[in-house]
Amino acid sequence: MPVLKRSLWTISVQNSGYFYIRETIWIEYDGKLYHIGHFEKKVSGEANRILPMTKELVVDKSRQVTERVIIPAIGFDETFGPFPFHP
After folding, report:
1. Is the sign of the CA dihedral 46, 47, 50, 55 positive or negative?
2. Which of 14, 19, 30, 36 has the lowest CB atom count within 10 Å?
């Protein structure tokens, strides 16, 4: 550790004009699966759009886990956590 995992995703804004950023974070370590945390946020956006986003999962030296979600098209950049990871 520390670890950074970056991945590209898309998210769809529904007819209601809202979408949810949600994640349940699981980490596999030493052959075991650990539930680290969960976050959820309701975000408004223009209906019927597909937006590219980047998610960055970070585990720092003190084993704190954060996930940063970036959606450039709407100026969204938020970090969720930290969630403790103590196997």
Report:
1. positive
2. 30
Cβ-Cβ contacts under 8 Å for 7 (sequence gap 6 or more):
54, 55, 57
pTM of the entire structure?
Answer: 0.80
Please report, for the chain, the start and end positions of each structural domain, with discontinuous segments joined by +: 3-84
CB 64 within 8 A of CB 82: yes
**pLDDT truncated to tens, each residue of the chain (87 aa)?**
567 777 877 777 776 778 888 899 998 889 999 999 999 998 887 777 888 889 999 989 898 999 999 999 889 999 999 999 888
- The residues, any chain, with a CB within 8 Å of residue 85's CB and separated by 6 or more, are 27, 29, 34, 36, 59, 63, 64, 65
